[in-house]
Amino acid sequence: MGARTKARRRAIDLLFEAESRGLNAGELARERAESPVTPAPLNDYTISAVQGVVAHWGDIDDALTTYSQGWSLDRMPDVDRAILRLGAWEILFNDEVPDGVAVSEAVALATELSTDESPKFVNGLLARIVEVKPTLV
C-alpha cells in the first residue's frame, strides 16, 4: 500500500470518527497531529485532506446529495459518506490528484471497508461528479 493510499485511509478513519463522535474533523486531525495516538504520526496529506474536506464540507455534501439519485446522505453507510467526501474533495478541489485516481482509490477503500454494494455505488456517484465537474467548480 502506497503512502498516499495509507494517508487516504487515515483521513477516512478521522472523518468517520469525527462524525461518529460529533466532533469537527479538522480539529480532530489537528489534535492527532499534535498528540498522535498511534506510533506513526499523521501524514501531511492526511491532515490536508481532512482540512480540505472540512473547508468545502457544504459544497461537497451538496454535490453528493444532488447526484446520489434517491440516496440522502443520512441513508448512506457512515463509512461510505466519509469515502465519498474525501473522493469528492480530491475530484473538485485538489488539482494534484487526477480524477480517475481519486475515483479508483475511493472504490478500493469502499471495497476494503464497506458493504458489497458500496464499491459500485461509490464508483457511480464519483464518476457522475467527475462528469459534471466543469459545472461545479
From TrEMBL:
Coiled-coil spans in chain: none
Signal peptide stretch: none
MF terms (GO), sorted A to Z: RNA binding
Keywords, comma-separated and alphabetical: RNA-binding, Transcription, Transcription antitermination, Transcription regulation
Record-level GO BP terms: DNA-templated transcription termination; transcription antitermination
GO cellular component: cytosol
Highest taxon above the source species: Bacteria
All residue ranges annotated as the NusB/RsmB/TIM44 domain in the record: 6-130
InterPro entries with a match to the protein in the record: NusB-like_sf (IPR035926), NusB_fam (IPR011605), NusB_RsmB_TIM44 (IPR006027)
Protein family according to the UniProt entry: Belongs to the NusB family.
Main function: Involved in transcription antitermination. Required for transcription of ribosomal RNA (rRNA) genes. Binds specifically to the boxA antiterminator sequence of the ribosomal RNA (rrn) operons.
HAMAP family: NusB
NCBIfam families per UniProt: nusB
Designated name of the protein: Transcription antitermination protein NusB
Protein encoded by which gene: nusB
